[in-house]
Fold each of these.
Amino acid sequence: MKHLDEEELVAHFYGDGDAEAAEHLACCARCAEAFAALSADLLEVEALHPPSRDAAYGERVWASIAPAVSAYAAPRRKWLRLSLGRGLSYAAACALLIVAAFLAGRFFEQKQPHPPLAVNPAPPAKPRVVVVVLSDHLDRSERLLVELKHADVETSAPLRDEARTLLAANRICRNHAGNDPELKATLERLDHLLDELAQQPQGLTPATLIRLQSEMNAEGLLFDVRVLRTQLPEPQTANRSHGGIL
Amino acid sequence: MSKNDAAAIQAILSGDKEAYGELVKRHAQTLFRAAWRITGNEADADDVVQEAFLRGYRKLGSFERRADFATWIYRIAVNCALDRLASRRSHDACRVGEEIDPEQEQVQLEDLAAGPERLLLSGEIRALQRDALRSLTPTERTAFVLRHMEERSSEEIAVALGIAPNAAKQAVFRAVQKLRLRLAPLRVKV
């Protein structure tokens, strides 16, 4: 028979022993005697009775520590935390999308062959000979129109001769105007004016002169001729490049 | 945990500092009793109670709502008492006096010439018991006090001391062994 040791007896005294130890104590005089001695010793150890504290003791303790503690910060409302968190998430997602789109666009752009610039495509270039002739014709027409603008009946005779010369050149230029509607329209109006001037065998009458000046001013013919002339390449350059043929 | 404790904790964490006063008033007596039994000193016990409630307030944010506040604050108080014992043992010198005065931390040496009449005086018996308790290590003393006087289970002692239940049982057993040895002369003479 195995007897209980002191540790088992202590455990049994405090109620931690198992049923086997209890059965053994019930039938073993030696262990029962040892347990009785242990119990007597422990029962002699009186519970230490602390000094009494009155009902206000807790209040005094709280009064002594209250100044040393600070209130906890009230937690934010849950919905506020949720909405704030959700808003930040949306903002972050949007920012991410924008960055991704930007990067994708740049990447796509780099992969694509660069198309030729299609802004205001220049009209097909005119042959350089035509340019030089046209420039010269417009220059002479402009001078004629300026003289017509300031002409009177006495000084208008030379204008008729010049108009006859310019009329032939104007028709050649008009025929070679190609697809430039602005040039074509201006040359047509100029043709009409030159034709009228050229068909005055006796010179310009005052009435005719005034009418032509009025029509020229009303249609802005002089202005259009000047604009067309400035739009043409420099005739000198063309002349130089062609060795002064024209 | 009681509903009152839970409600008070909720209020404290929501910013109502005064609600902690209710918890202090509710549990101060229990903590004082345990603190006094562990430290054996009234002034130390008062300090332990204050320190425990202060620590408890500062740690309240980490307190798990499912736990029992009474057990939780009790454990803190036991730890504070152990700290106090350790601090006292490292600083105080043991003084020899003619009379036993636990408040003065004096120890009366065994007088082999003393007669049984004197030992039979209950006051002196209690003094001897206190002396025997002081001879224990802080852990043994705390484990014994919690088991023998506070009637806490081994599991509760283990939680309070932060040790395994088996270690708590061992601490109680060692304390009993030492006490019986220390109080043996009293038993023989009586």
Note: Confidence is low (pLDDT under 50) at residues 237-246 of chain A.
Amino acid sequence: MSRFERIRSEAVAAGKAFLRRRTAVFFTFFFPVLLIAVFAGLIRTDAGGGLFARPTGYYLPGYLGVVVLFTPLSRLSSTVARHREGNRFEKLATTPLTSTEWLLAHVLITAGLVAAASAVLVLALVPLATFALSPLLVPFVLLGAVLFGGIGAILGRLADSQDGAISMSNGLALPLLFLSETFVSPDLFPAWFRPFTALSPLTHFARGVRAATYTGENALPALGLLALLTVVFFAVGAYALPTTD
Amino acid sequence: MHAVAANGVHKEYGDTTALAGVDLEVDAGEAFALVGPNGAGKTTFVRCLTGTEPVDSGSVELLGGAPGEADPQRVGLLPQSFSPAGRLTAREVVTHYAGLYDAARDPGDALDTVGLAPDRRDEHYENLSGGEQRRACVAATLVNDPDVLFLDEPTGSVDPAGRRALHAALSELVAGGTTLLLTTHDMAEAERLADRVGLLSSGELVAVGAPSELVAAHAGGPSLLVETDADVGEIAGFDAESADGGVRLRGVARDDVADVVRALDESGVAFDALEWSEPGLEDAYLALTGESE
């Protein structure tokens, strides 16, 4: 009960602090809409071949991947950097709140935001693309948000400022997005490179979501692997949180 | 029982020695002030005592055990330059920290204690003045009624009225049995709040004692400032030293002032004013650190 109360208290404070930053809220939800406006247009105009030659439903993991990847990475990395600059971790280290509870509170808020943004995105895509609305989308999105939240926490620890944290998260997310079987299908990569795409956690997210919504294959192996990676990166992220600066 | 104990604490950052074998014991219910120049190691020492920074060598005890094993319910820390989320109100900041403990005071009560005006409590933290922000932070630190309270420069940027309210609140906590360890650059604050004061300089605790003991041992005697343009060497047996606005005569007791005035008249030294003062903790601090006005 008291652990629950601690996490609740931290999550409520984090949620309020975020929701009052209007710019951050606007872009969290505007981002997926912007994505669709840009990429959906490209897909329709490039149906004869090239980068976006696949049927529209193929790219759902790409759209979702952007939200699942960018939002947790930038939010958690900048939040950790902001906490460090305000000496908040030093204070929290002397309270009953553990680093695992802190990270859990913040990834829960982030997962809620990512889930809401993903819902907006999926609903906007329904009339534009052909894909199955699988209930497995929910665990894939939530696990992805927690996984990349853990990685964001690690980046926040490594960065020396909020600006640095956001630069690092963008610098990691952008190449990861295009090398993880999201918008770019693996057959467009050289053969020697294809095995390396499996090193990206986003690849397993994309494979699983695609299996659940487009190809009809069994998505559970990818979900299991994603869950395992989520546990690992969450644990490393919690361990990486500092007590002082 | 000692609430806080440090034995030979040594801490280095690269080539810089932050703490060079510091020993200190603070009894339960005692108020202890740590003073010292910027960069003396005060914040590092607080971090070592609270366990947020590991020591390189030596040992630290907090509430009878290793700092990491101390019951966090019984400890409160206000770090230096602490800054909570700017878009939370002062009340929400305190409520947030209250929610982290099994038992905590009512946030409104904690804000009453530090004297934050009711009409300012629902303002976003970022819109509060520096002094109001610091008061909200102190409220968030004492909301769990800690047995040991660490405050790293708690009254910086707080106005005199707010400072007085905070001092009264802290004195009440100490009277109630709370152990207080604060760092400060304000000697009047240290003198007013602390049972004992420790002077940290270049990572070493160079003096520890009650404020009156430190003053008696290190501050020298009372002095008389003679505001004059005249070149004065010695008056009534007291050597004059150059000071801002005139000359200062050291060791002049209150009863000696009349003799000095008479001697000044007899020697024809014109003066605008006389200012007699007893030494304070600041004089002891300046003498011990080798800093001068």
Note: The mean pLDDT of chain B is 91.
Amino acid sequence: MNIFLRELRANIKSLLIWSFIVIVFNLVGFLKFSAYYNNPQMLAILDSLPPAMLSAFSMSAFNLTTVAGFYGIMATYFGLILSIAAAMWGSGVISKEERDKTVEFSLTLPVTRARLITAKTAAMVVDCLILLLITWGITLVSAQQYHPDGEFYRFVTIGMLAFLIEQMIFLALGIFLGCAVKKHKQAGSIAVWLLLGTYFLSILVGLNKDLDFLKYLTPFKYFDAAQLLHESRLEMPFVLLSVAIIAACMAAAYASYAKRDLYI
Amino acid sequence: MNIYLHEFKTKLRSVLIWSASIATLLFVFISIYSGFAKQSALLQQAMANFPRELLIAFGMENMDWSNVLGYFALVFLFCQICLAIQAANYGFGLVSIEESEWTADFLLAKPISRAKIMTSKVLAALTGLTITNIVVWVSSFICLAAFASGQDYPVNSLVVLLLSIIVFQLVFLSVGMVISLLVRRVRSVTPFSMGLVFGLYLLNAFGGMIGQTSLEIVSPFKHFDPYYIIKHTAWDLPLVLISVTVIVISVAASYLLYARRNIPSAV
């Protein structure tokens, strides 16, 4: 419990910075939306654009003149921000002990290594949830001025669930890297590579229909915002795949950290 | 000279990895161009029918899909993200790494001024960035020759676009440097550079899509918008000047700050 509280306190500054970023993007986004709100001309233009073009800018299948459609576009970017935060936190929370030379101290505490990871993971999960709730709250507040309907609320709720899964995937990946990568400095940079790689891959898949099979490799494609909007349900195979990835990463993290050589 | 060589050697591996990754990125994206070519012809037609104000509102007034460079501009944006992260990493780590690894007191005890240390380090980072820059030039030309299916494209525009890389890298290098000197301690470089680069990228992505310009005017991704450069075969000069000013101020401030910085030591 002490470790859990200690980690929460240590991460407050980072949490505040990420919350600030999320809030700024939300405000900028909804400010821009005022140009689209109930503007039929915009819709006519969007209809005449070819699909690959739209998906390259993640604008396909949304009616931009409604607040739900507009939020569909922003959802991709919010997913990206929340995933970056989760990956940074996950890879940092374990590896920072070796970086700051405090690892001998924490491992001489009378707790097992497994409990150490559990406490640290729990603290980061809580931070991810707080960031998600802040995103949720500010979205609902900003949307109020555009009189959102039931469709919007359903979409935001299910969208948040999708964000949560993305966050947990990248958090688990980060924690796994922090536990398993030999050089503690590399944990963070490998996490960055994974983020960039999967983000670019998700764009690549959008550009070309023939590459559709690659979407299993990038969590950014597991939950398509357009589908969330129109069918308001998560696709079961991808939920299971996500859970499997998270479970595998955490299991590997516990297993590798139990045997880890410390570099001090 | 010793510091320069030492710095360069420690960076070499990272430079090679970044260069190889960016070259791969260009290769993969440009290799699927032929599937996109038909769509881009449709798009060009569709855009010809739009009123200009609406194209501006969509941030699309600069897009030109009549040849392969329109697609290349799209790809180049992702290239820019990578280049920016690399440059920001080097900038944030440049002098802060000595403090986080407790080697700063050793380095500063050498019989050379702090300004000279700084200059050597900046030059070493710049050499690394230039190697990456050259790799991007070479792989761009090769990929376009290989996958553009024999199409002609205005080489001038491409050259002007690729020339912008060096200024773009300098912005992130110098901003990273000055921020690392403004804060008390940089524990780890990655969160800083990710925050800076993705913050500015998303700001521009949000802004470019909809409505009139506002906050995104501060983003180098806006200053070096590949679509604008390709269409006009020129840089958006007033905006580029913002970038240049940022570079000059950051570099000057970095030298001043480093000259009077308190250095923590291990003992």
Note: The two ends of chain A are 26 Å apart (CA to CA).
